[in-house]
Amino acid sequence: MSRDQNRTSHYDEDSLTLSGTVMLGTGVMIGAGIFALTGQMAEMTGALFPLAFLAAAVIVSFSAYSYIKISNAYPSAGGIGMYLHKAYGDRLPTAFNALLMYFSMVIAQSFLARTFGSYTMQLFGGDESGLMVPILGVALILTAFVINLQGNRLIQGFAGFIGMLKIGGILIIGLAGVLLADSLAIDFTRESEPGTLGNFLGATALGILAFKGFTTITNSGSEVIDPHQNIGRSIVISIAACVVIYTLVGFAVAGNLSLSEIIETRDYSLAAAARPVFGEYGVWFTVAIAMTATAGGILASIFAVSRMLAMLTEMHLVPHSHFGMSGSIQKHTLVYTVVLGIFLTAFFDLSRIAALGIVFYLVMDIAIHWGVLRYLLDDIKAKSWVPVTAIILDLFVLSGFVWVKLNSDPYVIAVAVFVMILIACGEHLYLGSEARKRIMHREHNH
């Protein structure tokens, strides 16, 4: 076998069970949603932030329909990259939107890494220097990289163990927080301007970021047992579990902290909420669960996103260089993903990481639903009104989120637009390049 052939990705069929796939999905979802977004959503919309989680769940439920239908018809390790290719073919919309999803997933792992650092430092009184949070985040990404090199079964074992541990721990925190709270009749006030519809939509958009981890399940299509059934089931189970957990914890935090306290501790609000209920031991317990949850999320995210980029590379939708590395493309994309994640973790704070992630994700999500409506409706036996509703809801919350950020942090919107223009121009040049045409011609002849 030639060296080039040895570089292709190899997927271990039937290596991921239904429960293992659910744990990979919830690993990303719970890690991001509970531990860091709660405070940011409260800062944006005030007392309504638990309802913003519920609104996000409704929108994600409509969005998930398209992914489930395509997954049942075309399970693939390429996940969303392959779904976009089915809809748009070998063209710019496929490459552009697939890369938006790729970057949003890398952003998600950076978000998890910094959340890990923020919670860990609560054991040492915080991070006044501002250096330890990114250092701990980078260390976590490197650890997850080493584990990902070991293979699917080890990843599934880690994800399953961590998943059960963190779900149990979060449920304990949430139930105790609700039962022991002084009052669930939440009446927050804030000194700044009261929440508006735009602020609520912006918080809902952040809530969607907490649920979007279900898309990582689609990248395991070639490795899941009975993928035509189990990918869709895994998505439904993951979203349903997170709806319950997010709602419970949202009200627990709201019942134990004032709005100003939630905003002040927005990067570690769940740990702060545990203090009135459990004391310092509760803080330690919450931090331990947060560290476990975010570590599991990083592990699952790196697993999924590296496979997606490998599929895009093998479809010749993105350029690829080995940079002198040996091994398969799948190993190379794992390295690229980790390097990019480390960069974001080191130089971007949590709020800006989240903002970039939600803009990229919602633009890509709209493209998925439009592809279903325009090209795949009959093939996957989908009902048109569901993706139409999903597009309308996505546009609604994206508009609200962009409006809020333009007024509070226009820099991050400028960065998002710049990166999207850069991706579109770069992909346009690559797809029309002579080098790619030669590769495609050679493969066609073979």
Automatic annotation (TrEMBL):
<feature type="transmembrane region" description="Helical">
    <location>
        <begin position="21"/>
        <end position="42"/>
    </location>
</feature>
<dbReference type="Pfam" id="PF13520">
    <property type="entry name" value="AA_permease_2"/>
</dbReference>
<feature type="transmembrane region" description="Helical">
    <location>
        <begin position="196"/>
        <end position="214"/>
    </location>
</feature>
<feature type="transmembrane region" description="Helical">
    <location>
        <begin position="161"/>
        <end position="181"/>
    </location>
</feature>
<feature type="transmembrane region" description="Helical">
    <location>
        <begin position="354"/>
        <end position="373"/>
    </location>
</feature>
<feature type="transmembrane region" description="Helical">
    <location>
        <begin position="235"/>
        <end position="263"/>
    </location>
</feature>
<feature type="transmembrane region" description="Helical">
    <location>
        <begin position="331"/>
        <end position="348"/>
    </location>
</feature>
<keyword id="KW-1003">Cell membrane</keyword>
<dbReference type="InterPro" id="IPR002293">
    <property type="entry name" value="AA/rel_permease1"/>
</dbReference>
<feature type="transmembrane region" description="Helical">
    <location>
        <begin position="283"/>
        <end position="310"/>
    </location>
</feature>
<keyword id="KW-1133">Transmembrane helix</keyword>
<dbReference type="InterPro" id="IPR050367">
    <property type="entry name" value="APC_superfamily"/>
</dbReference>
<feature type="transmembrane region" description="Helical">
    <location>
        <begin position="385"/>
        <end position="404"/>
    </location>
</feature>
<feature type="transmembrane region" description="Helical">
    <location>
        <begin position="92"/>
        <end position="111"/>
    </location>
</feature>
<keyword id="KW-0472">Membrane</keyword>
<protein>
    <submittedName>
        <fullName>APC family permease</fullName>
    </submittedName>
</protein>
<feature type="transmembrane region" description="Helical">
    <location>
        <begin position="48"/>
        <end position="68"/>
    </location>
</feature>
<keyword id="KW-0812">Transmembrane</keyword>
<feature type="transmembrane region" description="Helical">
    <location>
        <begin position="410"/>
        <end position="431"/>
    </location>
</feature>
<feature type="transmembrane region" description="Helical">
    <location>
        <begin position="131"/>
        <end position="149"/>
    </location>
</feature>
